[in-house]
Design a protein that fits this description.
This protein has about 200 residues and is α+β, with helices and mostly antiparallel strands. The chain has 9 helices and 4 strands.
């Protein structure tokens, strides 16, 4: 077997994992979210910039504020998921670089002094971290329902500030009845990988 990861773990994280569209009412605890973060924070980002920020929406009031910004097809599942996370990119991530990159603290000013450069880097690396987050949710034995069908500008205005760019909304919980759509096809190895 060419992979070191146990086949059951491969199934849990990839082959059997799906985007959930319904959830049970079993709560997702703060301890579970902490465990997810404590695992996925080790995923690599350029310059260890770690720009992902997570806003957990737990309250009924917060949920109501969020649902109004979701696309119509995503509103009901967002209203009923046990936990919803807004994943965002921190465009001021460079302020943390002296602590996150102690062997090269001058990277903050040498590479990221200009806002457009930071925004581009934050978007790419926070999206990478968002993928780690989804895998971490699966590693916790939970299902994730990531969605970009939303009014991102509305979410930014409602929950964030100008220094944070929303990436996606993720419903989290134990899968409910009829949680899965049929699995869509995937490209084959030969369609994706080229050797030169």
């Amino acid at each position: 077997m060419p992979l070191a990861l146990d086949p059951a773990a491969q199934d849990l994280l990839f082959r059997e994992a799906r985007t959930a569209n319904t959830f049970t009412d079993e709560p997702v605890t703060d301890e579970q979210v902490q465990a997810i973060y404590d695992l996925v924070k080790f995923g690599p980002t350029a310059f260890n910039q770690s720009p992902l920020r997570v806003i957990l929406v737990r309250s009924a009031e917060g949920r109501e504020r969020l649902v109004q910004h979701m696309a119509e097809g995503n509103q009901a599942k967002t209203a009923t998921a046990p936990l919803v996370a807004i994943l965002a990119a921190d465009n001021e991530f460079h302020e943390e670089l002296p602590a996150l990159l102690p062997h090269f603290p001058q990277a903050k000013d040498a590479f990221f002094s200009e806002r457009p450069v930071r925004e581009s880097a934050a978007l790419l690396n926070a999206a990478l971290q968002a993928a780690y987050f989804i895998i971490g949710v699966r590693a916790a034995g939970l299902a994730a329902g990531p969605m970009t069908g939303c009014d991102a500008a509305g979410i930014q205005k409602e929950f964030l500030d100008d220094d944070h760019t929303p990436l996606m909304v993720v419903n989290i919980g134990k899968p409910g009845e009829d949680a899965w759509f049929p699995r869509s096809p995937r490209l084959s190895y030969d369609e994706v990988v080229t050797t030169v």
